[in-house]
Structure formats: structure tokens, C-alpha cells
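Before the break, one more example. Copy the sequence into your notebook; we will annotate it together after we see the structure.
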Amino acid sequence: MPGVPAVSVEGVGKEFRLPHERAHTLKERALHPFRRPGAERLQALDAVSFAVAQGEFFGIVGRNGSGKSTLLKCLAGIYKVDRGEIRMRGRLSTFIELGVGFNPDLPARDNVLINGIMLGLSPKEALRRFDSIIAFAELEEFVDLKLKNYSSGMQVRLAFSVMSQVDADVLLIDEVLAVGDAAFQQKCFDVFQRLKDEGKTILFVTHDMAAVNRFCDRAVLLERGRVEVIGAPGDVGARYLQRNFDRDGARPEEGDEGRVGDGTAEIAEAWFEVDGARADVLPQGAETTLSVRVRFHAAVTEPAIAFLLENDRHDPLWAISNEDGDAPSGTHAAGDEAVFSVTFRNVFAPGRVHLTPWMVHAGGAPIIDRRPQLASAVVTAVHRSGGLVDLPCVMRYERGIRAPA
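Here is what the structure looks like once it is written out:
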């Protein structure tokens, strides 16, 4: 039925009772037979409502304790909601904790078959997909080894590999991308992209805003069990960062939407240059510079300064930091100012580009200042490549060339 959402959440509420004191032994009960422990009520979810369209990749984000995992367990049917209603259309598979149901005393071969059946595959189908599951997890040499002898990384790789083979219309996924090395993480990203291309409806709980921007069509931010904002991934991610720094006492400046930081320094301005002069038009192929001026309000040692360049669709075009090259920042005292610049040959496709600068303390956290889309410019070109970039290239077309025998 066209227009019917795959997942509908309407006014959902979930409450837990937390006992203040509990008798754990028979002796305690005998000594205090009339003591009645009090209990505190925790409102984990409060009037949560949203709808997810069929084929949509929907992110669920929020700080620890915001109600994300409780919501996912309500969606999965693990928890019964106290109020409201949840409706789903299609077959559901849940991946709340990778590896749940694995038996450490059985080898990978048996665990793959059992776990696959638990997740909805028939025994015959689980057996047919066994080789591809083991190959994806890169565990061919350890297939007969008991799981209790696997490293934690090997177990997670095996669990994700089983998950990737399950057929379902709606998938509920909780924090599974931080598994394995960089190569295996890319394989996980490829699975997500395949599921998205296949039109699966996916609800994805995560703290990773980069993954939200990369995969999600929309996202919802939960705060203290309530919906704070639903919208584009970039907008929700910016509000999530703002919420994190509100908790630590840092606040965005008035009129600077999405700005976060601890205030030890500030990004005063950012701009584009072409051939050494400030510009808001960037000809394709020209030597282009991104610059940012920062002002320090306290002593800061070795801050990292970075740029993110995006197009109007919020596609990340390029990210670069002074830590990526030979541009150490050193130590700064209160009152110091500095300018960080990056110069490159402009290969970006025509259209408007937005520059987001940010600065963090040594080690990557916390954020000192981040100002989303502080500067923008328009890339111009004679022709359009149809992609995100228009790379210089050499073309050749030859006629009369026969293929070698």
C-alpha cells in the first residue's frame, strides 16, 4: 500500500521502577520483616513518535541514558511499551548485540548454523550460505576452533558476517560498525550500502555522527527519553554535538547555529582564496586556498585544526587537518592568534561548497570550537562531470586496433 510507513511509533512511553533498597538474604528479611523498600520511577521513553518510510535508512542518536537502546528493545518486542503503539510492516530482524546466542563451547561451524536459524534462515539456507559467511569474516583457518578460543574481534566479525546474510524487510541495528580493522570496517560499510541499495528499511542506533551522515536519510535525536529533533542527518548531528557540550558547560554563540566548543579558543573567521586573493567564486582548475583565523583565550598546547568541505547536499567532499601534513601548531598563550591555510588545485564539480572549520585539543577531544558552514563559495566550470569531482585526465580513442590473439 503506497504511503504506508514501514515503522510507525506513536506516543510510546516506557517506565522502569528502580528499588532503593532490597533484602538479598534470608537473614536480612528476618531482621527487617516489615521493611518495604521504596522505588524510584524512571521515565525511559516519554511520548516518542515518528514514522519511517519503506526503504528509509533512519538514524537514532542521543547521549548515554537518552533512551536509544530502550526504544530499540521496544521496537524489537523485548520490552512491552506502557503507552502508545508501535506498528511494523514486513519481516523484522534485530541486531541489538552481535553474537547473542553464540555458544563458546561449539566451533564456528555450528554457531553459524544455529545463529543463522535464530535470525530467520532455514537450516538448508543457513548451510548453503555457510562458506560465504566464513569467507566474509576471514576465518577460514579457524572454522573448527571453539568460539571460546576466538579473540573478541574474531567473534564480532563472525557475528556481523552472519547478520549480513539475513533476509528481512526491516532491520534494527545497534552500534555494529566499530568492529575489526580498517579493511573489515570498509566491508561493513559495503554491507550497509548494499542493504540500502536493496531498499531495506533500517533503524540504526549509534553515537557515530560520520556514519549517520554517510548512510542515513533522516535521523531522530532523543534527549531524556523525548524526541528533541527529527530531520536531516547533518542538522541532527549538529544538535547532538551541541547537546554534548551543553552538558560540559559550553554553549553555542547566539546566532551561530550548531556551534560547539569549550571556549578556550575561538575560530574568528574562515575564507576562500583564489590566486592569493579572497574570493567567493572558485574557478575549477585554479589554485585555491582554505584559511581560518583562530584566537586563543587560554593556554593551549598542540591544538589540531581541520576543515570539512561539503556541497549543498551535505556530501563530504574533503576533510583535512594540520595533523595530516607538516604544519604543527605548537603552544599558544591567551591572546595569541594564528592562521591555518591549505592550498590545492580545485577539482570539485560546479556548485556551491560550504566550509566547516573546527579545532580540538591534542588527542582529538574535547572540541575547542566548531562552526558549521562558516564560509561558502561557488565552484564554476565550463562543463559538468556529473560527479563530486572533475579530475584532470588524458583521453584516447583509437580505431583499427585489434585485440591480441
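Residues 247-254 have pLDDT under 50 and may be disordered. The chain is about 20% helix and 35% strand. Try to locate both features in your own notes.
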